[in-house]
């Protein structure tokens, strides 16, 4: 099991969601046990029935007793039937509640993982892992409730009756049951590694498919359908081989079990015939023995499948338990308070950050942004500009140094209050597969329709929205794929306008716009930036020149700062970047 996630750890994880319903679960198991006890008692009355049926008295004398026995069997079976119906009724209510709680709590915990966690994970695989944990709970409860409890009660009860009837009968059946059960448990344990391997391949195939579907446009652009088909086919071929191997060894297991059952049945009847010959057994005893063997063998035969299902459930659950046991990389300080923003003064004080031990991104970066100041971060690719904004949003924690807003360390305030105070328009905004109204209103969920319309007008996207057949009720497709890049950007800006946070981060917010769209949006951005402390990552001249100050980043440090004209006079990195963009790279 991955990272030795024990059965105990998995059960502790499931128990957190089961505990509020422990009384209902206990009643399920008690009723199931009672119903299985009935299955032990009823064959005793069948024995009495056949003994009376074969008695030497006249039929008329035996009929009342036979009818009485039949009514007792009816009553017992009726009570067992009632127990099972109540079990089904309670299960139908309780299990969906617990599965819902497992999925909701798993989703909530997973969503609190860091930006880095999601950067290194396949979305499709994560979705499958959440569902698998909930399904693992259902499998485990069903196996215990419907199979394991019945096996224990029926085997113990039947063997006890047979031992009381004749020790030799009980001994023969005990040996048979022990051999079959021991073989099942040993075989299932040995096979566990193959179950885990198949489970891992199942997750891998889901991840490969999800990754390909997410990047379907890229695949078409590079005509890589054949390559991706081969990649997926290769994963599925490995899955096929693993599944075939599992089924083959399971078939071998069933063959051994069947042989052991045949031998146990032969031994039982061989001894029973000799006991009958000596008058120690009656015809009813043969009916009792047959009923017990059918009941026990049926349950023991299913023991192998039950063990397999239990181990499969544990293997499925282990993947999600690994995520639930993984500490959150970015956590709120134990005594964190809400961020109180007054002037929106941002300070980076000797900040160092590394993605890994060999890749340092920021090296002692220090800078201060004044209240309501608009700055542009400029520098070569990989200089650390986007990392600065991610650290400000606390998607990562700094390795050393600190970042403050109005004198408050962002590491000591709640993440929610920090991100509530910052509105961000990313370079490639990703929208929900929801309506345009829902996507814009995401900036402030309690906004009225009219406030959403006003934000869309200010972002210059209202006009194209009202031309759509469904207008604001138009669904945008997964990740907003039904809209153009410029339209997605304007929806993201409308969302930021509606949020109206005191701090604004624009990461190439106009990069996806054509010249006409950019001219429309610049006025909206100017209005959006009024009264806000703004950080802009920009390369376009039109954006850079509108800033109060330009900060040049290189090698993870601030290497220069000033206005556009001041930096051009210094003949430094900014001048070089400006010349390249302004056309200096064209001979």
From TrEMBL:
It comes from Candidatus Uhrbacteria bacterium RIFCSPLOWO2_02_FULL_48_18. SMART domains: AAA. It comes from the Bacteria. GO terms for cellular component: plasma membrane. Residues 28-312 form the ABC transmembrane type-1 domain. Pfam families: ABC_membrane, ABC_tran. Residues 346-580 form the ABC transporter domain. Its main location: membrane. The keyword Ribosomal protein does not apply. This is ABC transporter ATP-binding protein. One of its GO terms (molecular function) is ATP hydrolysis activity. It is a multi-pass membrane protein.
């Amino acid at each position: 099991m991955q990272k030795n996630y024990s059965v105990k750890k998995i059960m502790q994880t499931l128990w957190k969601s089961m505990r509020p319903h422990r009384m209902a679960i206990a009643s399920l198991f008690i009723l199931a046990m009672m119903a299985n006890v009935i299955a032990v008692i009823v064959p005793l009355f069948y024995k009495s029935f056949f003994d009376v049926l074969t008695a030497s008295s006249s039929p008329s004398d035996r009929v009342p007793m036979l009818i009485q026995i039949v009514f007792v069997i009816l009553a017992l079976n009726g009570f067992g039937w009632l127990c099972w119906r109540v079990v089904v009724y309670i299960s139908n209510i309780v299990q969906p509640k617990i599965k819902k709680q497992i999925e909701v709590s798993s989703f909530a915990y997973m969503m609190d993982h860091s930006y880095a966690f999601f950067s290194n994970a396949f979305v499709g695989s994560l979705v499958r892992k959440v569902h698998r944990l909930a399904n693992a709970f259902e499998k485990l409860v069903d196996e215990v409730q419907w199979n394991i409890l019945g096996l224990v009660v029926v085997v113990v009860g039947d063997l006890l009756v047979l031992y009381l009837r004749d020790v030799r009968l009980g001994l023969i059946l005990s040996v048979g049951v022990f051999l079959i059960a021991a073989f099942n448990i040993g075989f299932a344990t040995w096979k566990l590694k193959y179950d885990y391997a198949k489970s891992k391949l199942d997750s891998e195939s889901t991840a490969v498919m999800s990754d390909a579907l997410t990047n379907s446009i890229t695949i078409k652009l590079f005509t890589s359908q054949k390559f991706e088909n081969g990649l997926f086919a290769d994963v599925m071929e490995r899955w096929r081989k693993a599944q075939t191997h599992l089924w083959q060894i399971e078939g071998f297991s069933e063959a051994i079990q069947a042989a052991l059952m045949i031998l146990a049945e032969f031994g039982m009847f061989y001894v029973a015939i000799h006991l009958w010959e000596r008058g120690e057994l009656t015809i009813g005893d043969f009916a009792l023995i047959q009923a017990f063997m059918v009941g026990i063998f049926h349950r023991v035969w299913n023991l192998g499948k039950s063990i397999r299902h239990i181990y499969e459930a544990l293997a499925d659950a282990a993947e999600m338990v690994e995520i639930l046991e993984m500490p959150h990389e970015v956590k709120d300080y134990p005594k964190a308070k809400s961020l109180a923003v007054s002037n929106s003064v941002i300070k980076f004080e000797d900040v160092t950050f590394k993605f890994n031990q060999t890749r340092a991104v920021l090296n002692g970066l220090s800078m201060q942004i004044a209240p309501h100041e608009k700055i542009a971060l400029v520098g070569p690719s990989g200089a650390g500009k986007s990392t600065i904004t991610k650290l400000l949003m606390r998607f990562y924690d700094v390795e050393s140094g600190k970042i403050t807003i109005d004198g408050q360390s962002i590491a000591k305030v709640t993440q929610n209050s920090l991100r509530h105070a910052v509105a961000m328009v990313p370079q490639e905004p990703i929208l929900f597969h929801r309506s345009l109204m829902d996507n814009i209103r995401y900036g402030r969920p309690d906004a009225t329709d009219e406030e959403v319309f006003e934000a869309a007008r200010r972002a210059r996207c209202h006009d194209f929205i009202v031309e759509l057949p469904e207008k604001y009720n138009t669904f945008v497709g997964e990740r907003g794929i039904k809209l153009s890049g410029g339209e997605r950007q304007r929806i993201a800006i409308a969302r930021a306008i509606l949020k109206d946070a005191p701090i604004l981060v624009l990461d190439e917010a106009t990069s996806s716009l054509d010249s006409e769209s950019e001219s429309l949006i610049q006025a909206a951005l100017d209005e959006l930036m009024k009264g806000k402390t703004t950080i802009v990552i920009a390369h376009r001249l039109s954006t850079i020149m509108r800033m109060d100050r330009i900060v040049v980043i290189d090698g993870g440090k601030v290497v220069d700062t000033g206005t556009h004209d001041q930096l051009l006079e210094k003949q430094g990195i900014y001048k070089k970047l400006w010349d390249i963009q302004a056309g200096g790279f064209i001979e």
